[in-house]
Amino acid sequence: GQQLNQSPQSMFIQEGEDVSMNCTSSSIFNTWLWYKQDPGEGPVLLIALYKAGELTSNGRLTAQFGITRKDSFLNISASIPSDVGIYFCAGQMLQGAQKLVFGQGTRLTINP
Amino acid sequence: NAGVMQNPRHLVRRRGQEARLRCSPMKGHSHVYWYRQLPEEGLKFMVYLQKENIIDESGMPKERFSAEFPKEGPSILRIQQVVRGDSAAYFCASSPPSTETQYFGPGTRLLVL
């Protein structure tokens, strides 16, 4: 089935550092979404990308939809302690309401 | 506007029992999705429903699992004769018609003893 490869699997950084993570796929996706999951909670939507090449920001977060439609990255600038959690990329192969395919997640740990 | 509601948040069952997980979508959302998450893994799609219709059940195990989204009331994910391998977090998401953005509930953590 479809699969998203997300890297890195985990990151250990100092507070204030910038963070970058990415997702790649062998298949084309029409929509890319980035979620954050805190322990014991459901994923919370951070950024949604709908067009190839699109670059979107949400505060300190920036994400891009790759021009080939097979990849996306998420950057977090000037990390703070509340950024700790697991970040997931997710893609949809068709437009409109469709199932999401998730990456394996990137676990972010921040040393104060 | 309340978010996606799921209950119970935690459910403990013995092998062979039935588990019923409930999901109330956000107001105005007519599409419901169920996902399963094993520890240290991403979410895996199970089923996509609209009111009174199953649209895509390609991720549902062939046996023991069923889902419904009746005209009135919450969506139900039902697992019959649970086994230890069913232990996982089950998440529900909802979306308005014809949009890509899915909003997730807090999940139900199922533990099978």
Question: Would you give an account of this structure?
Answer:
The complex is a heterodimer of chains A (112) and B (113). Chain A is mostly beta strands and 112 residues long. Helix content of chain A is 0%, strand content 52%. In chain B, the strands form two sheets. In chain B, strands 2, 4, 5, 6, 9, 10 and 11 form a seven-stranded mixed sheet that branches. In chain B, strands 1-3-8-7 form a four-stranded antiparallel sheet, with no helix packed on it. At the A-B interface, strand 4, strand 5, strand 9 and strand 10 of A face strand 4, strand 5, strand 9 and strand 10 of B.
Structure described in brief:
By secondary structure, chain A is mainly β. Chain A contains no helices and 11 strands.
Write the layout of secondary structure elements.
The complex is a heterodimer of chains A (112) and B (113).
Chain A: E1 5-7, E2 10-14, E3 19-24, E4 31-37, E5 44-49, E6 55-58, E7 61-65, E8 71-76, E9 85-92, E10 101-102, E11 106-111
Parallel strand pairs in A: 2-11
Antiparallel strand pairs in A: 1-3, 3-8, 4-5, 4-9, 6-7, 7-8, 9-10, 9-11
Chain B: E1 5-7, E2 10-13, E3 19-24, E4 31-37, E5 43-50, E6 53-56, E7 65-68, E8 75-79, E9 88-95, E10 103-104, E11 108-112
Parallel strand pairs in B: 2-11
Antiparallel strand pairs in B: 1-3, 3-8, 4-5, 4-9, 5-6, 7-8, 9-10, 9-11
Q: What is the element string of chain A, with H for helices and E for strands? A: EEEEEEEEEEE
- What does the average pLDDT of chain B come to? 93
Low-confidence stretches of chain B: none
Characterize the largest beta sheet of chain A: strand count, sense, and whether it forms a barrel. 6 strands, mixed
Point out poorly predicted stretches of chain A: none
What's the helix-strand series of chain B? EEEEEEEEEEE
Query: Kindly state the mean pLDDT of chain A as a whole number?
Result: 92
Ends of chain B: how far apart?
A: 37 Å
Principal-axes geometry of chain A comes out as globular
Cα gyration radius of chain A (Å)? 13 Å
Helices of chain B, by number, come to: 0
Largest interface comes to: A-B, 28 and 29 residues
Structural class of chain B: mainly beta
What separation lies between the terminal Cα atoms of chain A? 40 Å
By DSSP, the count of extended strands of chain B is 11
| Helix fraction of chain A by DSSP (H/I, runs of at least 4) | under 10%
**In percent, how much strand structure appears in the residues of chain A?**
over 45%
